[in-house]
Write a structure and sequence with these properties.
Blueprint (H helix, E strand, L loop, with lengths): L4 E3 L2 E4 L3 H12 L4 E4 L7 H5 L6 E4 L7 E2 L5 H8 L2 H10 L4 E3 L4 E4 L4 H13 L3 E3 L4 E7 L2 E6 L2 E5 L1 E4 L14 H8 L4 E7 L3 E3 L1 H7 L6 E8 L2 E9 L3 E3 L1 H7 L8 E4 L6 H11 L5 H8 L2 H7 L2 H4 L8 H12 L1 E3 L1 E4 L7 E6 L17 E3 L7 E2 L4 H14 L3
Parallel strand pairs: 1-11, 2-3, 2-12, 3-8, 12-22
Antiparallel strand pairs: 4-7, 5-23, 6-7, 9-10, 10-11, 13-21, 14-17, 14-20, 15-16, 15-18, 16-17, 18-19
The chain binds flavin-adenine dinucleotide (FAD).
């Protein structure tokens, strides 16, 4: 007996940020949409995002907030479906939200609000979501594609790959999208973990482990790019927003530069204090500027006990460099296990920037994180998922 084939017009793989947005938009145009996902729940990453409050977009979005081998590719989608469009949808659903530092928008209550909104909209347009569906093969059959899965065979004219990147395998991340892209002859830029904590070299780890839990605003830089946000010392290494941001630009073996006192001219502060209160101990002055534990981990105890009057000009410069020009060579990153995103992915040059359609195979689309477009921390990755999903939803 031949298998029954479930016919639809649009098949979307991945029931999360980009896939659900695409389903909503295609559904609004009256297209028959089925979304398949191997997870037992839709939108797992949405639910865990932003510490459970989903940083769903940012007030200030531009192509400069994204990393890609083709930095222009994301411009079209981001300008056609903007943060204001997504905010309007959030407002329509009366979801309370607030703005945090650097324009980040978060739900007041829970990330569930965003997922419920997307699922509600899918329901309105009758887009069907099938969970617990494992895809065995993807083949072509005129006029489209046939997918052999654990819940049956599906055929559709348009196939949209919205299966995300490799970060957090526990949350059902898989290399499915890259494999489909390769199957259809696409080039994949090598993938690596982005927005991820650093591990440290053994000697730094031993020295800095006692600082676990300390967070200080810092300026972190590498290769001419810098981020001024908090860094967090952890028992494994370094984390916090500034570290996550720079991790997306870091190359193994390179050092990063950290200014632990970005708003303080430390040489002038020490020199001024030296002329006013020559007997002040160095440790007393530094402990007013930075957590005591941090100060003791960075400077020799004998030096810290010295009164400022005993410090030469060159010694003051050295002390300032220790805190303001800290060069640290990470041992590596924590990898996909804890990364928020995956860098690299499907080569943008082989996709239409307007529709996300493959230039290699008609009817095949790639949206969201599987594409070689990676946003900064701050709601940029979701905005890319919404914008790319929206664009594809207009044409499939
Ligand atoms: C801990 C964490 C917090 C984050 N917080 C934020 C934040 O606050 N703001 C922000 O902008 N970004 C955040 N991100 C990044 C953001 O979640 C992603 O960039 C975004 O979810 C990507 O959307 P997507 O639709 O492309 O992929 P995903 O959301 O990853 O969805 C992919 C879907 O495809 C399914 N899938 C995968 N493989 C298969 C397969 N083989 N068969 C069937 N289905 C499959 C998955 O189950 C999943 O449902 C965070 C990420 C993490 C890990």
């Amino acid at each position: 007996m031949r298998d029954i084939i479930i016919q639809t017009e649009v098949l979307i793989i991945g029931a999360s940020a980009s896939g659900l947005m695409c389903a909503i938009e295609a559904g609004k145009r009256g297209r028959k949409v089925i979304v398949l996902d191997h997870a037992n729940k839709a939108g797992k990453k949405i639910l865990m995002s932003g510490g459970g409050r989903c940083n769903f977009t940012n007030m200030d979005i531009s192509a400069d907030n994204y990393i890609s081998h083709n930095p222009h590719f994301c411009k079209s989608a981001l300008s056609r479906y903007t943060q204001w469009d997504f905010i309007a949808m959030v407002d329509e659903h009366h979801i309370p939200y607030h703005e945090r530092d650097l324009g980040k928008l978060f739900c007041d209550d829970t990330a569930k609000d965003i997922l419920s909104m997307l699922l509600d909209e899918c329901h309105k347009v009758k887009a069907e979501i099938k969970l617990d569906t494992h895809i065995n093969t993807v083949t072509t059959q005129e006029p489209g594609f046939v997918l052999d899965t654990s819940t049956g065979k599906y055929q559709a004219e348009s196939l949209v790959i919205a299966s995300g990147g490799l970060s957090i395998p526990k949350m059902c991340a898989s290399p499915f999208g890259y494999k489909v892209a390769e199957q259809f002859g696409h080039h994949i830029w090598p993938t690596s973990a982005g927005l991820v904590p650093f591990t440290l070299q053994p000697e730094d780890k031993q020295r800095l482990e006692p600082l676990s839990g300390i967070s200080v605003e810092s300026n972190v830089s590498t290769q001419g790019i810098s981020f001024k946000e908090n860094i967090l010392f952890t028992h494994r290494g370094l984390s916090g927003p500034a570290i996550l941001q720079i991790s997306s630009y870091w190359k193994p073996g390179e050092a990063i530069t950290i200014d632990l006192l970005p708003d303080t001219e430390l040489v002038s502060v020490i020199t001024e204090c030296q002329s006013r209160n020559a007997n002040t101990l160095l440790k007393t002055l530094l402990s007013e500027l930075l957590p005591k534990r941090l100060v003791t981990a960075f400077l020799d105890p004998d030096l810290l006990e010295k009164p400022l009057q005993e410090l030469s000009k060159s010694r003051i410069q050295q002390i300032a460099d220790t805190f303001k020009n800290w060069q640290v060579k990470p041992g590596g990153t924590e990898g996909c296990r804890t990364a928020e995103v995956t860098l690299g992915g499907v080569d943008c040059d082989e996709l239409s920037s307007k529709t996300m359609e493959s230039k290699k195979h008609k009817g095949l689309y790639f949206i969201g994180e599987v594409v070689d477009v990676t946003g900064w921390l701050g709601g940029y990755n979701f905005q890319w998922a919404w914008s790319s999903g929206w664009c594809t939803g207009q044409v499939v």
